[in-house]
Structure formats: C-alpha cells, structure tokens
Amino acid sequence: LNLENQLLRQRARLLHGADTATQPPTPVVAPTCAASKPLQDEAPAAARTTLMLRNLPSNYTRATLLGLLDAEGFSGCYDFVYLPRDFNSGACVG
User: Fold this and answer.
1) Which of 3, 7, 54, 85 sees the fewest Cβ atoms within 10 Å?
2) For 33-68, how does the pLDDT look when each residue is reduced to its tens digit (9 = 90+)?
3) CB 93 within 8 A of CB 85
4) Residues 77, 36: contact at Cβ < 8 Å?
C-alpha cells in the first residue's frame, strides 16, 4: 500500500506539472526486502506479496515503470512486472 501511495504521488506530480523546487520532498520509506538476496520461491507463502497498480498513465512503458520503481528504492524487491498494453494504440492499459 505504501508503494502504491508513493507511485500515486509521483504520478500526480508528473501529471500536474508540480514544481518540485517549491514543494518539500516526499519522504520515501526504504523497502524491507533484501536486494542482495535472490528472489525465489524460498519465502513462505504468507511472506509473499502481490501488488497491483491501477490508473497508471497511458504513456507509461514497462521500462518507465521499472525506472520509477528502482528510483523509489525498490530495485531488487520484485521478480516479475507485467504492464498490459493495447496492441492497436500501443497505450498502457494499467
């Protein structure tokens, strides 16, 4: 939920053209995953998490989303990212 809130704030800043120089920086909580530990099925089922992000901008690509996740400190905390696209328009449908 914390990641979703951070991404929503980032999206709002990007969409509304907020001047980050006049606004205080958004505090980012460091993720609790061990980035140096390989992500495999070694974690018990109760410790696994699935996250679905909604209302992503239609111009986002998978690379853009991964870049945002990494920039917010979640590099190495995920092992699978799927961003559905409309094959006719090429737009993200997330």
Assistant:
1) 54
2) 655 455 555 667 777 788 888 888 888 888 999 999
3) yes
4) no
d(CA 57, CA 68): 13
- Single-letter code of the amino acid located at 57: P
Q: What is the C-alpha end-to-end distance of the chain, expressed in Å?
A: 17
Map tokens 């980032």 to a residue. Answer: 10
Q: Name, in order, each residue with C-beta under 8 angstroms of 42's C-beta and a sequence gap of 6 or more.
A: none
What does the chain come to in residues? 94
Query: Which three-class secondary structure state does DSSP give residue 92?
Result: strand
Answer for the pair 62, 94: CB distance below 8 angstroms, yes or no: no
| Separation between Cα atoms, residue 28 and residue 69, nearest integer Å | 12
Identify the helix (H) or strand (E) that includes residue 62. Answer: helix 62-69
